[in-house]
């Protein structure tokens, strides 16, 4: 198993991508801390039902105190932190119904949530685990970005800008933490078949699979597979990179 006995924190793991990532990490032998601002006991029970070790926490990644508690409780329970998966983030559809709008209609408050969660929240989590990983002399951080961060999608420019920032943060942290044997990478999904994306499409987002070179819907499990690879020892010499998983929707 690729993550056997590794301790992994997966944020935003109550549903969608985070749930799929947490379940796949558990299948690969990891001990899990699953955390979300939403109720994540159901995914914890799924992991426990398959004899996995798991800690479930209610965590708001925009709160420095919450993420410090997340890291500390993980250490208290498992003794180390090997992997952080920064999946929690703000997107449209469920959380923000008016996600898609022309740039001239965007106002400051439209930007606040995306920057607060996707940029500051991601950094908060990275900062919370850094000292533990440094003491261990190793660690892996996988940030969830988005294909939108490559192309600057104009009708959700606030979101695409925030995810482009996650990619830049990934490169900067990789540079800062490499000497401590900590690798930092990102996965950039395209359109993924999740509840949030279905809600977005029903609100006018359109069907994006026609733009893909591979004419199949990308599933949460496809993203989870990429995350597991980057979190595993197989990727120990890969850092500062963004892996696009989008069925060829965009090429980079």
Explain this structure:
This protein is of the alpha/beta class and 252 residues long. The protein has one domain: 3-Layer(aba) Sandwich (Rossmann fold), CATH 3.40.50.720. The protein is built from 8 helices and 7 strands; from the N terminus they run E-H-E-H-E-H-E-H-E-H-H-E-H-H-E. Strands 3-2-1-4-5-6-7 form a 7-stranded parallel beta sheet, with helices on both faces. The longest helix has 29 residues. It is globular, with a radius of gyration of 17 Å. It starts with 6 loop residues before the first strand and ends in a 7-residue tail after the last strand.
Radius of gyration from the alpha-carbon trace, in angstroms: 17 Å
Question: Within the CATH hierarchy, at the fold level, what is the topology?
Answer: Rossmann fold
- Give the N-terminus to C-terminus distance in angstroms: 31 Å
Number of domains: 1
Structural classification? alpha/beta
CATH class type:
Alpha Beta
Secondary structure tally: strands: 7
Low-confidence stretches: none
Overall pLDDT: 92
CATH architecture: 3-Layer(aba) Sandwich
List the helices and strands and how they pair.
Elements: E1 7-11, H1 16-27, E2 31-36, H2 41-49, E3 54-58, H3 64-78, E4 83-86, H4 108-136, E5 139-144, H5 148-151, H6 157-177, E6 182-189, H7 195-205, H8 220-231, E7 242-245
Parallel strand pairs: 1-2, 1-4, 2-3, 4-5, 5-6, 6-7
Helix pairs in contact: 1-8, 3-4, 4-6
């Amino acid at each position: 198993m690729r993550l056997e006995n590794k301790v992994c924190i997966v944020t935003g793991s109550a549903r969608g991508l985070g749930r799929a990532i947490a379940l796949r990490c558990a299948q690969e032998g990891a001990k899990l801390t699953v955390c979300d601002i939403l109720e994540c006991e159901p995914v914890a029970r799924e992991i426990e039902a398959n004899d996995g070790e798991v800690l479930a926490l209610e965590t708001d990644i925009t709160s420095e105190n919450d993420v410090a508690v997340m890291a500390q409780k993980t250490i208290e329970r498992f003794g180390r932190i090997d992997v952080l998966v920064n999946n929690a983030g703000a997107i449209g559809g469920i959380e923000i119904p008016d996600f898609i709008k022309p740039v001239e209609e965007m106002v400051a408050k439209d930007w606040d949530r995306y920057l607060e969660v996707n940029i500051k929240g991601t950094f908060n989590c990275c900062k919370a685990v850094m000292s533990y990983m440094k003491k261990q002399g190793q660690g892996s951080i996988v940030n969830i970005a988005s294909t939108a961060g490559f192309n600057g999608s104009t009708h959700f420019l606030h979101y695409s800008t925030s995810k482009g920032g996650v990619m830049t943060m990934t490169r900067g942290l990789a540079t800062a933490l490499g000497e401590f044997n900590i690798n930092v990478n990102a996965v950039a999904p395209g359109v993924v078949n999740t509840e949030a994306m279905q809600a977005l499409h029903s609100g006018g987002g359109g069907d994006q699979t026609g733009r893909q070179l591979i004419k199949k819907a990308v599933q949460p499990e496809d993203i989870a597979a990429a995350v597991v690879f980057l979190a595993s020892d197989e990727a120990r010499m890969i850092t500062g990179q963004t892996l696009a998983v989008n069925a060829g929707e965009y090429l980079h």
